[in-house]
Structures are given as C-alpha cells and as structure tokens.
Amino acid sequence: MKPESSLTPVSSRRAYEFLKAGPGTERGAALVIVLLAVTLLTVVVVEFTYSAQVDHHLTYNALKALQASYLARSGVNLALLALKKDTQKSSIDSLRDDWARALPPLPAGEGVVLVRVNDEQGKLNLNALRNANGTINGRWREVAERLFTLQDLDLGLLDPLLDWLDGDDFPEPRGAEQSHYLSLTPPYAPRNGLLLTLGELGRIEGFTPAVRARLNRVVTVLPSSNTKINVNTAPAEVLAALFPAVNQTTLEQFLESRVDTPAHGPTDLRERLEFDPRSAVDALTLIDVRSEFFAVQALATVSSVSQGLTVIVQRRAAAVIPISWQPALFLSMNEGAT
Fold first, then answer.
1. Cα-based torsion angle of the residue sequence 96, 113, 336, 312 in order, rounded to the nearest 10 degrees
2. What is the H or E stretch that residue 295 is in?
3. For residue 21, what is the enclosing H or E element?
4. 221: which of 11, 92, 195, 270 fits an S-S bond (Cβ 3.0–4.6 Å)?
5. Phi, psi for 132 (deg, rounded to 5)
6. Structural domains for the chain
7. 338 residues of the chain, pLDDT tens digit each
8. Environment class of residue 127 by beta-carbon count within 10 Å: exposed (0-12), middle (13-18) or buried (19+)?
9. Cα 327 → chain centroid
10. Which stretch of DSSP H or E encloses residue 84?
11. What CA–CA distance (Å, rounded) separates 316 from 86?
12. How many Å apart are CA 334 and CA 306, to the nearest integer?
C-alpha cells in the first residue's frame, strides 16, 4: 500500500511552477527594485543640485545688490560734496556749475556708478500753491494755470490739486474733497496739506500716469511753500509760464546765453528778457538765482545687478542735508557726459 502524499493537488502545482521558474525570477524582481531605487535617488540628487544652484544664484545676486546699493550711496555722497563745495565758489547757481555737469559712469571696484544732480528749484513747486494759513496763493496759481496750458493739460486738473492742498473741505468747481475720496475702494482721506512727495500726485483725482509724465520735468514737491524758481536752471516751459509777455525769440536767446552768462538777479534778468518791469513786477518776486533744494540721482551696477537712488537734499550755508530717499532706476549706464 502506497503512502499518501502530504501535499494537496493545488500546493503541488504551485511548488512545481516555482521550481520550474527557477531562481532567475527572483533576480529579475530584485533588479527592478534596484533600478527604481536608483531612479528615485537620481531625482532627489538632481532636485537637490538644482535647489543648491538656485540658492547660490540668489545669494550671489543679493550680495551684488548690496554692493550696488552701497556704491549708489557713495555716488550720492560724492554729489553732496560737490554741492557743498559749490557754495564756496559762487553766490548763484547755474548750469555751468560743477554739480550740473553730466559725468560719465565712474568705475569703483567691481562696479560703476552714474550720478546726476538736478536743481529742483528750476521747477514749479506745487506746495508753493498753498499759503502758510492753508489758503491758495493766487500768484502761483496763475503760473500753474499757464504751465498746465503749455503742457496741453486740462486746467480742470488744478481744482482737485488745490483741494488736496488747501485746508478746507469745500471743493473747487471741478475738484474733489473728503467725501469723494472716502467713497473710493479702498477709501482714503485727502491730505489737506502740503504734498510729501511727487508720487503723491497719483492719489489725487485725475492725475493719471500720463498726466504725471507730462509734469515730471516741470513740477516738483518741496517741503517748503516759500521757495522761488531759479531762472538759471528752469526749463523753457517754466520760464514761459512765469513771463507770458516775453516773446519766444527773446526767451530762446536767454536760454542759450545763460549757460555761459547766467542771470545775476531780477534787474539783470529784466534787461535780458526786455520786458516792461511794470507788467512783470509780481513775477520778479517769484524768481531767484540761488537754489536750496536739489535732486541727486545715483545708479550703480555691479556684475549686471543695478541699484538706483533718488535723494532730495536741502543745501544750507553749513551743510547739505538729505530730506528724502527713494529707490529708483532712471538712467542707462551707457549715457555719457554732455
């Protein structure tokens, strides 16, 4: 009698199939697992390498940006020194002064810095439209109206500007006061005081980017409402707004001659512009040949990373004091001297 097998028919078949498959199947499965592991490790290594490269690039750019920032500040300090030394040379400010020269980019270590100084008192100070008591200055308002006309701007824009500056809550005919600004989304209150920066114009009703671009060359915002316009540095449009009775030819002759022979005062200016002093007596009280406020612009580049600064400074007898700092990119490094 034959002994009975301990294996069932099903288990016997599985054992047979396993023996038939042999050890090669186990080796194949192990190879697949190894390949998957290598693939995953490769992905991890590539991702880590990429992240390290990005971090390195960001750190490098941050370092160069910091170096460019300090280089720009050095350019500003250079301009401040030039402005301070200028007080020892002349009692007037003009386009022939050292600070007004357009210098080429100055090399410094790994980078270069480009510096420009502009006379802010060659422009119409919008804060001069407001008197100390909060009312509107009529003489400066007339100048502003003529300047806006010369710039092809709607005179209605002056109404919300004057409302922003004056101390009351009664709107001009085409103006806007607190009720208008509080109805906007998001709401905000008008300043009803002196503008702090030229960029604040963007918060005033009607002063779109296109409008501000037209005004950028001819208006400024200074912390004092008692400033006058320097006729030796003012653009042609500003002078035309100051002296509407002067003909275009005479004005152009003065603009050309003032580079080498700047005006020395109201009497000299009256003779050169050939106007009747009785017709321009008010305008002569609004002009000067000496400036107190300047805009210093510095653009520094280190390894293709650029940093720019615009600094409004106030020059007094003993010092040149920065009163506002703003980041700005404004010039091309290939802009040469003129």
1. -40
2. strand 293-302
3. helix 9-21
4. 195
5. -60, -30
6. 68-130+218-338 (3.30.1300.30), 152-217 (1.10.40.60)
7. 455 555 455 555 655 555 455 555 666 778 788 888 888 888 888 887 888 877 777 888 888 999 999 999 999 999 999 999 988 888 899 999 999 988 899 998 889 999 999 999 999 999 999 998 989 999 999 999 999 999 999 999 999 999 999 999 999 999 999 999 999 999 999 999 999 999 999 999 999 999 999 999 999 999 998 999 999 999 999 999 999 989 999 999 999 999 999 999 988 998 898 876 565 667 788 999 999 999 999 999 998 899 999 999 999 877 899 999 888 755 555 554 43
8. buried
9. 6
10. helix 24-86
11. 11
12. 13
Report the amino acid identity of residue 71: L
CB 296 within 8 A of CB 117: yes
Under 8 Å between Cβ of 95 and 259: yes
Q: Does this model's pTM top 0.70?
A: yes
Residue that has been written with the tokens 């040469």 in this structure: 336
Q: Read off the tokens for 156.
A: 């209605």
| Nearest-angstrom CA–CA distance, 252 and 246 | 10
| Alpha carbon 190 to chain centroid, angstroms | 23
- Residue recorded with tokens 């002009």: 287
